[in-house]
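Appendix B. Chain record.
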Amino acid sequence: MGCESSVPVLEVYLSPLARPVAAVNQRYCAHKFLTLRVETRFLESGVFYQEALTKRDRFVIKGKFFSSRLTLLDATTNAPIANYKAKTFSSKPILYVRAGTETEGPELFQIYGKYHTGLKSDVRVEFRDVVSGLPCMLGFEGNWRRREGYFWLDKGLDGVREAVARVHCPNGGSYSKHHIVVTPNMDAALI
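C-alpha coordinates predicted for this chain:
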Protein backbone atom coordinates (compact mmCIF):
# COMPACT_ATOMS: atom_id res chain seq x y z
CA MET A 1 0.00 0.00 0.00
CA GLY A 2 2.81 2.41 -0.76
CA CYS A 3 4.78 1.64 2.41
CA GLU A 4 6.68 -1.43 1.27
CA SER A 5 10.00 0.42 1.32
CA SER A 6 9.66 1.32 5.01
CA VAL A 7 9.07 -2.20 6.33
CA PRO A 8 12.66 -3.52 6.06
CA VAL A 9 14.01 -0.30 7.60
CA LEU A 10 11.88 -0.58 10.72
CA GLU A 11 12.87 -4.23 11.13
CA VAL A 12 16.62 -3.48 11.16
CA TYR A 13 18.03 -4.77 14.44
CA LEU A 14 20.43 -2.50 16.30
CA SER A 15 22.77 -4.11 18.80
CA PRO A 16 25.32 -2.34 21.00
CA LEU A 17 28.87 -2.21 19.67
CA ALA A 18 31.34 -4.15 21.82
CA ARG A 19 33.77 -1.20 21.90
CA PRO A 20 33.31 2.50 21.20
CA VAL A 21 33.80 3.67 17.60
CA ALA A 22 34.39 7.38 17.08
CA ALA A 23 35.39 9.57 14.17
CA VAL A 24 35.17 12.80 16.13
CA ASN A 25 35.48 12.13 19.87
CA GLN A 26 34.75 9.14 22.12
CA ARG A 27 32.74 11.32 24.52
CA TYR A 28 29.92 11.42 21.94
CA CYS A 29 29.49 7.63 22.19
CA ALA A 30 26.47 7.02 24.42
CA HIS A 31 26.47 4.03 26.77
CA LYS A 32 22.83 3.25 25.98
CA PHE A 33 20.55 3.60 22.96
CA LEU A 34 20.13 7.26 22.07
CA THR A 35 17.10 8.56 20.19
CA LEU A 36 17.65 11.96 18.63
CA ARG A 37 14.73 14.00 17.36
CA VAL A 38 15.91 16.10 14.44
CA GLU A 39 14.15 19.40 13.92
CA THR A 40 14.78 22.36 11.65
CA ARG A 41 14.06 25.63 13.44
CA PHE A 42 13.90 28.41 10.91
CA LEU A 43 13.68 31.25 13.45
CA GLU A 44 16.83 29.99 15.17
CA SER A 45 18.45 29.20 11.78
CA GLY A 46 19.68 25.74 12.54
CA VAL A 47 19.09 22.02 12.62
CA PHE A 48 18.70 20.75 16.20
CA TYR A 49 19.33 17.21 17.41
CA GLN A 50 17.32 16.80 20.59
CA GLU A 51 17.23 13.82 22.95
CA ALA A 52 13.73 12.47 22.37
CA LEU A 53 13.11 11.47 26.01
CA THR A 54 14.55 14.48 27.85
CA LYS A 55 13.81 17.07 25.13
CA ARG A 56 17.30 18.55 25.70
CA ASP A 57 19.25 19.75 22.69
CA ARG A 58 22.29 17.52 22.15
CA PHE A 59 23.76 18.85 18.88
CA VAL A 60 23.02 21.77 16.58
CA ILE A 61 24.18 22.56 13.05
CA LYS A 62 24.45 26.28 12.36
CA GLY A 63 25.75 28.33 9.48
CA LYS A 64 26.15 31.93 8.47
CA PHE A 65 23.93 33.60 5.93
CA PHE A 66 25.27 33.17 2.37
CA SER A 67 27.98 30.74 3.51
CA SER A 68 28.32 27.11 2.49
CA ARG A 69 30.27 26.37 5.71
CA LEU A 70 28.24 24.79 8.51
CA THR A 71 29.35 24.05 12.07
CA LEU A 72 28.26 21.15 14.30
CA LEU A 73 28.05 22.36 17.90
CA ASP A 74 27.75 20.50 21.19
CA ALA A 75 24.44 22.05 22.29
CA THR A 76 25.19 21.53 25.98
CA THR A 77 28.40 23.61 25.90
CA ASN A 78 27.97 25.49 22.59
CA ALA A 79 31.50 24.29 21.71
CA PRO A 80 32.24 23.60 18.03
CA ILE A 81 32.75 19.89 17.32
CA ALA A 82 33.36 19.99 13.58
CA ASN A 83 32.61 22.07 10.52
CA TYR A 84 32.12 21.28 6.88
CA LYS A 85 31.82 22.92 3.52
CA ALA A 86 30.13 21.47 0.49
CA LYS A 87 32.14 21.27 -2.72
CA THR A 88 30.47 23.84 -4.94
CA PHE A 89 29.10 22.89 -8.36
CA SER A 90 30.08 19.23 -8.15
CA SER A 91 28.30 16.31 -9.78
CA LYS A 92 29.29 14.27 -6.71
CA PRO A 93 28.46 16.17 -3.53
CA ILE A 94 31.38 15.96 -1.09
CA LEU A 95 31.49 17.49 2.38
CA TYR A 96 34.96 18.21 3.74
CA VAL A 97 34.83 17.87 7.54
CA ARG A 98 37.41 19.52 9.80
CA ALA A 99 37.72 19.68 13.60
CA GLY A 100 36.21 22.56 15.58
CA THR A 101 36.16 25.80 13.63
CA GLU A 102 39.30 25.17 11.56
CA THR A 103 38.94 26.03 7.88
CA GLU A 104 42.43 24.91 6.85
CA GLY A 105 44.58 21.95 7.78
CA PRO A 106 43.87 18.24 7.91
CA GLU A 107 40.39 16.89 7.38
CA LEU A 108 38.77 14.54 9.87
CA PHE A 109 36.99 12.82 6.98
CA GLN A 110 34.96 13.41 3.82
CA ILE A 111 31.29 12.62 3.34
CA TYR A 112 30.30 11.44 -0.13
CA GLY A 113 26.64 11.65 -1.01
CA LYS A 114 24.51 11.06 -4.06
CA TYR A 115 20.76 10.93 -4.61
CA HIS A 116 19.43 8.57 -7.23
CA THR A 117 16.04 8.73 -8.84
CA GLY A 118 13.49 6.72 -6.95
CA LEU A 119 14.18 5.43 -3.47
CA LYS A 120 17.96 5.12 -3.26
CA SER A 121 20.45 7.45 -1.58
CA ASP A 122 24.18 6.78 -1.36
CA VAL A 123 26.08 8.23 1.59
CA ARG A 124 29.57 7.08 2.51
CA VAL A 125 32.10 8.24 5.09
CA GLU A 126 35.59 6.78 5.38
CA PHE A 127 37.36 7.58 8.64
CA ARG A 128 39.91 6.28 11.12
CA ASP A 129 38.45 5.24 14.48
CA VAL A 130 40.08 7.50 17.09
CA VAL A 131 39.67 4.77 19.73
CA SER A 132 41.17 1.71 17.98
CA GLY A 133 42.99 3.32 15.05
CA LEU A 134 41.18 1.01 12.59
CA PRO A 135 40.01 2.32 9.22
CA CYS A 136 36.20 2.34 9.06
CA MET A 137 33.43 3.09 6.61
CA LEU A 138 29.97 4.36 7.48
CA GLY A 139 27.21 4.15 4.90
CA PHE A 140 23.49 4.70 4.56
CA GLU A 141 20.96 2.24 3.16
CA GLY A 142 17.51 3.57 2.34
CA ASN A 143 15.90 6.79 1.15
CA TRP A 144 17.35 9.89 2.80
CA ARG A 145 14.80 12.20 1.15
CA ARG A 146 12.02 10.28 2.91
CA ARG A 147 14.10 10.04 6.09
CA GLU A 148 13.86 6.28 6.26
CA GLY A 149 16.78 3.92 6.34
CA TYR A 150 19.70 2.90 8.46
CA PHE A 151 23.40 3.62 8.85
CA TRP A 152 25.81 0.69 8.70
CA LEU A 153 29.42 0.46 9.87
CA ASP A 154 32.27 -1.58 8.40
CA LYS A 155 35.01 -1.71 11.07
CA GLY A 156 38.45 -2.54 9.71
CA LEU A 157 37.08 -2.50 6.13
CA ASP A 158 36.63 -6.28 6.20
CA GLY A 159 33.30 -6.17 4.35
CA VAL A 160 31.18 -6.99 7.41
CA ARG A 161 28.46 -4.39 7.90
CA GLU A 162 26.55 -3.88 11.12
CA ALA A 163 23.61 -1.52 11.58
CA VAL A 164 24.51 1.31 13.97
CA ALA A 165 21.63 3.80 13.57
CA ARG A 166 18.10 3.87 12.22
CA VAL A 167 16.35 6.90 10.66
CA HIS A 168 12.57 7.19 10.52
CA CYS A 169 9.66 9.62 10.72
CA PRO A 170 7.61 8.56 13.76
CA ASN A 171 3.89 8.09 13.21
CA GLY A 172 4.11 9.25 9.61
CA GLY A 173 5.46 12.62 10.74
CA SER A 174 7.09 15.39 8.80
CA TYR A 175 10.44 14.93 7.07
CA SER A 176 11.68 18.04 8.88
CA LYS A 177 11.07 16.29 12.23
CA HIS A 178 12.50 12.80 12.11
CA HIS A 179 14.21 10.48 14.60
CA ILE A 180 17.63 8.86 14.55
CA VAL A 181 18.18 5.94 16.94
CA VAL A 182 21.91 5.44 17.60
CA THR A 183 23.28 2.19 19.01
CA PRO A 184 25.42 2.28 22.19
CA ASN A 185 29.16 2.96 21.69
CA MET A 186 28.65 4.66 18.29
CA ASP A 187 29.77 8.25 17.77
CA ALA A 188 26.46 10.16 17.71
CA ALA A 189 28.22 13.31 16.46
CA LEU A 190 29.28 11.40 13.34
CA ILE A 191 25.75 10.12 12.69
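Further analysis of this model is presented in Appendix C.
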